[in-house]
Amino acid sequence: MQTFPVMEYNHSEVNNNEGSASITGGYFYRSMTDPCMYGRYLYGDLYLQKTLKSQTRNRILSNWTQIQSLTMSTESIISINSLQSNQKIWTIEAMVLRQGIIKTFNNVQNNGKIWKMILADNMGTKIQAVMFNEAIRKFEGIFQHTKAYLISNGTVKKPNEKFANVHPSLELINPYVHIFGFVSSIGQSYVIKKKNGGEMHKREITIMNKELDSLPLTLWGEMALNEGQMLQENSDKKQIIIVSSLNGTTYQGQFQLSTTNMSTIQFDPHCIQVQKLKKWLHSSPTNEMDVQQLAVEKKIKKAKEINIRDLLTNPSPIMENTLYYFQATIDDVENKDQPWYDGSIPRYHIRLEFVDGNDKAIVILFDEPATSLIGCTILDYINSVRKDKFTSCFYRKMVSCKSMQYKFLFNSNRVTHSATGQTLTIIAQGIEVAQGDNFAKINEAETHETKKKRQLKKKIVEAIDAVEPTPIEDEDINKSNPNENEPIEIEDDENLNAFYKRQKQILRKKNPTILKKKIKLENV
DNA sequence: CCCCCCCC
C-alpha cells in the first residue's frame, strides 16, 4: 500500500481489471463513487446534441440543493453510474463541476467548435459532456458552473480506448488523488515545450493543510490558465480548494501532484471538512509569507542536520531522498545586484557562497526560499535595485545577509559536486535564521513589527504542535460521503461564473506572450 | 465530430 507524506487525501487503488476499488486514508472529501476508482468504462463521453429535440425536459435548477425539492416526478431520473453505453432514453440530473473554454478544432475529417464540461450527479459520479457547433450555440450561457441541470437523451458513448488511458496497466498502480487544503502560493502560468514539439501551459501552486504540510501541485493546460488565473486574482484571500483526480509523482525526492484531464477544482465548497479548515484559517493571523516560513521551519525541525564540511569533503555522506539541513554563515551573495534568470523556466534565483579553505559551497535559492531571505518577491527586488539600489531597503537587507547564520533545508537529490570535487552546489528548499531573530534588519519599525509577528508565530507554532493527527470520524464520513442521501452542498460561486463570463469575452492569442528568452537586466 | 497524460 502506497502512502503519501501528507495529510488530506483520498487514495484509491484499483485492484484488478474488472475495476473493483478500495479506498484508504484521508479524512476529508470522499468521492466514493468517483468513476476513476472503478476503471475506465465509466469515463464516458456524453454527447448532448439530441437533447435539443426535447428541450422542455431541460429544467434549469438554481442550485444543487434544490434538486431535492423538485416537484416534477423524478422517477425517470437515473444516476450517471447506471447510464448504459448507447442508451437512447435517459435523464440525469447533474451539476456542472467544470466548464472548459470553447475551442475550435480542425482536422482532416471535420472542423468546428467544441465545448467540454465535467458533470457530477448527487452520488458524486462524474461524466464528461461534449458539445459541438449547434449545441454550443443553444447551450452557451445556459450551463453555469456549480448549477445543476436535468439533461436527457443525448448520445452516450463509450470512451475512446485510445484516449482513455495511454497505459492501461498504469492504472493499476497509479492511484488518483483528491486533495483539499488552502492555497499558500500561486506561480505564474507559462508555456513549456513538450518532447513531441507541442506546447503546454503549466502553473505551479502550493497547497497546505492546517498542520502546514505543503505539497506542490502543478496545474496543466487550460486549468493553468483559467482556474489558475482565478486563484491568482483572489490570491489576497485565503482560498480553500478541493482538487480531484490528480496524479502523484515523486520528482527528485519530492512528492508532487499534477492535474489530469479529468481533474476539477472546487473553490470553497460547502462540506464539513472545508468549513473546519476555513474556520481555522480565518482565526489564524498569518499572512502568506509567514505561512510559507512556518512550513519551512516545520520541515527543518524534522530534517537531519549535516555539517557542510562533511558534505564538501565526502561525496556521499547523505541518503537518497532525505531532507537535510545545514547551518552556515553566508560568505557572499554572488549575484546581489541582479538575481539570475533561469532560461529554461521563468524564475529567478539567488546564489549564496560559503568558502572553506579551497572548498566552496554554492547554495541556490529559488522562489520561496529566495523571497524568504530578502523579504519580497524577486521581481520586486529587481525593480527596487534597478531604480537605485542604495536606497532600496531590500538591497540593504540582501547585503546584510553576509556573515549571518542561517539554516538551509535541502533534499539530498538536489546536491551536485563539481568535477574537481571542490565545489558543491545545493538547491535549497527553505531557509531559516539559525538562532533568535537575526534575519537581517531593515529599520527599527520592522524590528517592532518582527517582535509582534514573533509573538503571533509562537502562538501558531504552539497550536500546530498541539494538533493531533485527525482520525476519521464516522460522523464526518457520513456528512461528506456522497453515497449517503445528503447531496454535497456546493456554494453558489458567483465569482467563478463571472470569471467564466469574462473569459468568453477575452479573445485569446494563440501563442500567449510568455517570456521565453533569457531576460537581460540593465546593469545598475 | 475532440484529445494522445505533459516540464523541471
Question: Could you describe the 3D structure shown?
Answer:
This protein is an alpha+beta fold and 524 residues long. It folds into 4 domains: 56 residues, no CATH class; 95 residues, OB fold (Dihydrolipoamide Acetyltransferase, E2P); 106 residues, Nucleic acid-binding proteins (OB fold (Dihydrolipoamide Acetyltransferase, E2P)), CATH 2.40.50.140; 143 residues, OB fold (Dihydrolipoamide Acetyltransferase, E2P) (Beta Barrel), CATH 2.40.50.140. The protein is built from 13 helices and 23 strands. The strands form 3 sheets. Strands 16, 17, 18, 19, 20, 21, 22 and 23 form an 8-stranded mixed β-sheet that branches.
Short description:
The protein is of the alpha+beta class.
Give the distance, in angstroms, between the N- and C-terminal Cα atoms: 55 Å
Unreliable residue stretches: 1-45, 48-73, 164-175, 438-445, 468-492, 506-524
Radius of gyration: 26 Å
Number of helices: 13
Helix content: 10-25%
Give a short account of the largest sheet: 8 strands, mixed
| Average pLDDT | 68
Number of domains: 4
* The CATH C-level class name of the largest domain: Mainly Beta
Question: Beta-strand level of the residues, as a percent range?
Answer: 25-35%
Q: How would you describe the shape?
A: elongated
What is CATH's topology name of the largest domain?
OB fold (Dihydrolipoamide Acetyltransferase, E2P)
Which class best fits the helix and strand makeup?
A: alpha+beta
Known CATH architecture of the largest domain: Beta Barrel
